[in-house]
Write a structure and sequence with these properties.
Polyketide_Oxido-like, NAD(P)-bd_dom, oxidoreductase activity, acting on the CH-NH group of donors, NAD or NADP as acceptor, single chain, NAD(P)-bd_dom_sf, 5 strands, alpha/beta
């Protein structure tokens, strides 16, 4: 990592601990190179619950997922980033079906936009890319949905 300003991580959990195992290594490399900004792709499960204060969505009745394995892995990364000195943002999409960009999506700091049930991969990527030049959501999770 040389001569870069921002790291974007879209690592998948894929049933392993690759995500949480790699984040400390990414942070260390960034700190060694003086890179301050990281944007990661998480899951809506690690956003705050609207119905259960002080609880994340995957820990509440808001989550429709039968398995919380991926959310727990993303939760570990969220905790790791909170303890770092980096300027981090975690983009937290809900269900990601294949499809074309719609462009008319909603975002909410630390919460899933109310009534949001899906967002395309391409709209998630567009929002993430636009964060490179934005300081709007530093030290925040960002829910994104239509």
């Amino acid at each position: 990592m040389r001569e870069i300003d921002v790291v974007i991580s879209a690592l998948n959990t894929d049933g392993t601990t690759t995500l949480s195992d790699s984040m400390p290594l990414i942070i260390e490399a960034m700190e060694n190179e003086g890179i301050k900004r990281i944007i990661t792709i998480g899951t809506a499960g690690i956003l705050q619950s609207r119905t259960s204060p002080n609880t994340l969505r995957y820990q509440s009745s808001e989550s429709k997922r039968k398995s919380v394995r991926a959310a727990k892995e993303h939760h570990k990364v969220y905790d790791i980033l909170k303890q770092s000195t980096l300027e981090w943002t975690i983009v937290c999409p809900t269900y990601l079906p294949d499809g074309k960009s719609v462009g008319d999506y909603r975002v909410d700091r630390n919460f899933l936009p109310e009534g949001g049930v899906e967002i395309s991969v391409s709209d998630t990527a567009e929002f993430t890319y636009n964060l490179i030049k934005s300081n709007d959501y530093i030290q925040s999770r960002v829910g994104i949905a239509y």
